[in-house]
Amino acid sequence: MDDFYRDYILDHYRNPRNFGHLENPDVVAEDTNPLCGDRIRMELLVDANGTVADVRFFGKGCAISQASASMLTETVKGRPLADVARLTKEAVLENVGIGISPTRLKCAMLGLKVLKTAAVGKLASWPDED
Amino acid sequence: MRACVADDASKLARIVDDFPILRERTVRNRRLVYLDSAATSQKPQCVIDALVTYYSTYNANIHRGVYEIAARATDAFEDARSKVARFVNANPRELVWTRNTTEAINLVAHSWGGANIKPGDVILVTQLEHHSNLVPWQELAAKTGARLAYIPVDDRGLHVLDDLDDLLDGVKLVALSHVSNTLGTIAPLDAIVPRAHAAGAVVLVDGAQAAPNMPVDVKALDVDFYAFSGHKMCAPTGIGALYGKRALLEAMPPFLTGGDMIRTVTYEGATYNDLPWKFEAGTSNIAGAIGFGAAVEYLSQIGMEWVREHERSLARYAFERLRELEPRGLVVYGPRDPDLVADVISFNYADIHPHDLASILDGEGVCIRAGHHCTMPLMEKMGWPATARASFYIYNTKQDVDALIDALGKAAAIFKIDRAGAAGALGG
Ligand SMILES: Cc1ncc(COP(=O)(O)O)c(C=O)c1O
User: Fold this and answer.
1) How many independent structural domains does chain A possess?
2) Is the pLDDT assigned to residue B4 strictly greater than 70?
3) What fold does the segment set B303-414 form as a domain?
4) Is residue A87 part of a domain?
5) What angle do CA B181, B428, B41 make, to 5 degrees?
6) Mean pLDDT over residues B66-83, rounded?
7) pLDDT tens per residue, range B98-156
């Protein structure tokens, strides 16, 4: 577990990227990890091509949940929303690297869960809007 | 069964030796530094032996068996009740087995509460209650149209009694914890109980964190109900107890109904058993009760005054050692006074989230708890997102406190905490 807290993890924890709120997000999702109270909110701006034009996350919690959410925002910016909806756990593990213990995996996956909820919700709502 | 305690200078070493999990190198070949006894305590060999002996030599259902081992099991079960009752100075008739504190409180909320709480009544609790002593009253209030009011606590987590008499006006029930599981605060029961009674209220005390850690005398405290859990005081999980004053218990309707709690049943209806069996529907946790009896016998041999003194001196030492880290951003919450707290110390370290802290400490073989400790409203009031909590018990030593401090040093190194760390403290 000790080797999990590498410099870039601490950097994302202390200087989260894309942190805050969007003025007019197209889609918003939020969730908490009831076990430890970690909270993450994801806000997406989606352009006409269905690409994630901008993203913000907001939340509080442990270094694992916050750093992995921060890194995920970098992963998805400029990517098609359909790709975001199909992201898997591997994407998070690629970002955060090895060393995470099974008991803390939930913390790492919270950002992904919220992001996918946002993306899937948005995709599902498209037909109605057309 | 081996005798558990010797009364000599090496008492503490002997106590540690009574706990197999602490004797062995159980976690990653390290000695376990267990600082989470407020969640559940470790179990001494004599309690484990009591379970094994029951299951391997006289396992039988209780109360109606005519054969020898059934009689033995019944005797052991009721003997355990007497031991646990004596441990808190109660009459065995007034001691009902439950699964745990939570079930004991729910028993009172449903049975006594259902019969006595009316629309407009007030139930008074405190701001630092465990969810177990809060949610049942919220539910009862919602169901009956009663209202919940709160005895406030100050920034140090101490009860504020200035407006107590006003708060007590029209109160039917006061429900409060004897010791806070988040801050360790010992409630001033001697100041609250007489005034609550003078106002005509019934008093329920959640003793989950007190019964394991200090002498408890329900008669001297003059409380009406006292709830506690075996698993936090050396007994197995799944067994707890509710003490209730006889007149109150007699007047209460049963909580759960079915076998064991009846005297006679006809197709038309049933009459109920005597106390305490009226409240013990279905087959009880026989082994658990027997284990609970062995546990309080063990604790009584150690002496609850000794337990309290031991924890007081550990708390004093821990406060001292933690203070060394304050310049680097360590913050201790609660009264921070060994005379005012029992078994727990809550803290945060600079901007390290308590879950990260607990993970790193785990790597050093040190077990602490991190989170809201089932007191979410208190955390919200205090503005703490979460805290780390170390809790002590009979088997903890100053070396355990040192191990905690060393592990915190490791966490500080990993998180690169220096004096600047103080600036970014998490909360409080
Ligand atoms: C103060 C307090 N009350 C109630 C409880 C609930 O105990 P149990 O889970 O054994 O019912 C606890 C245990 O965490 C506690 O610390």
Assistant:
1) 1
2) no
3) Aspartate Aminotransferase, domain 1 (3.90.1150)
4) yes
5) 20
6) 96
7) 999 999 999 999 999 999 999 999 999 999 999 999 999 999 999 999 999 999 999 99
Q: Helices marked H in B100-232 — which ranges?
A: 101-107, 113-116, 135-144, 164-167, 189-198, 218-221
Q: Touching check for B383 and chain A: CB below 8 Å?
A: no
Mean confidence (pLDDT) of chain A: 89
Residue A120 within a domain: yes
Q: For chain B, which residues make up each domain, given as ranges?
A: 49-301, 303-414
Complex ipTM value: 0.88
Report whether B260 contacts B280 (CB < 8 A): yes
Q: What is the β-pairing status of strands B122-126 and B147-151?
A: parallel
Q: What's the confidence (pLDDT) of residue B422?
A: 47
Domain of residue A66, CATH code = 3.90.1010.10
Confidence of residue B65 (pLDDT cuts 50, 70, 90): confident
Q: What's the rounded Cα separation, in Å, for the pair B344 and B349?
A: 16
Distance B132 CA to ligand 1 centre (A): 6
Closest CA of chain B from A70, distance in Å: 16
What fold characterizes domain B49-301? Aspartate Aminotransferase; domain 2 (3.40.640)
Report yes or no on whether pTM surpasses 0.90.
yes
Q: CA B100, CA B291: separation in Å to the nearest integer?
A: 14
pLDDT at B146: 97
Assess B406–A contact: CB distance below 8 Å, yes or no. Answer: no
The string of pLDDT tens digits covering residues B327-341 is: 999 999 999 999 999
What's the 3-state SS for A38-71?
Answer: EEEEEEEEECCCCEEEEEEEEEECCHHHHHHHHH
Tell me chain A's radius of gyration from C-alpha atoms. 14
In a domain, A1, yes or no: no
Domain membership of residue A60 (yes or no) is yes
What are residue B285's phi and psi, to 5 degrees? -80, 80
Whether B363 and chain A come into contact, CB under 8 Å, resolves to yes
d(CA A9, CA A67): 6
pLDDT of residue A2: 63
Closest ligand 1 atom to the C-alpha of B374?
14
Confidence grade of residue A121 (pLDDT, cut at 50, 70, 90): confident
Q: Tally Cβ neighbours within 10 Å of residue B263.
A: 11
What six digits make up the tokens of B417? 């905490």
Residues spanned by the domain of A34 = 7-129
CB contact under 8 A, A2 and B360: yes
